[in-house]
Amino acid sequence: MRTPDPRTTDPTDQHRLRMALGRFATGVAVVTARSRSGMPVGMTVNSFTSVSLDPPLVLFCASRRSSLYPVFAAADAFGVNILRESQIAESRRFASRGFDRFATLRPRTGRTGVPLLPRALATLECVEPRRLPAGDHDVLIGRVAAIEADPDEIDQPLVYYAGGYRSLNTDFEWWSAWRE
What we know:
Blueprint: H1 14-21, E1 26-27, E2 29-34, E3 40-45, E4 48-53, E5 56-63, H2 69-74, E6 77-82, H3 88-95, E7 108-109, E8 115-116, E9 122-134, E10 137-148, E11 159-161, E12 164-166, H4 173-179
Antiparallel strand pairs: 1-11, 2-3, 2-6, 4-5, 5-10, 6-9, 7-8, 9-10, 11-12
């Protein structure tokens, strides 16, 4: 009889599943929208990715248990604010509950009406969101209608790995060589 490998676990063990998924490094973004009354809302996500270049589509995943879920489910547009390494405080702020996350920030309003965070590494404004149920979350897919990203600005992105914020600690000289 074969002894089970202790590193292999039942995939329904949520603690082990979360640990295994945490081994995939991700960027960190704050998705934003406006409530029907016009209030800005936002939440930190690491479940953001590109879907298609033609048409330009991106997605993020939102828990249906989130207090902000109804706002995003009803929104006509959402913003994606890709955070820089120096924006850990913003990431934590928008991951917290129970207070106005925009209280001391001065967001600007994008072309689609969504609030955009100051100093984000890049922003995308998305329209025509579609919701697809997936377990206890919904996948929200939006068509990119506006982009802000300075092609000459190279800065470290905020990275999340194994339950914490990490640094790439990368020398970006390769970027200059690649662009030439």
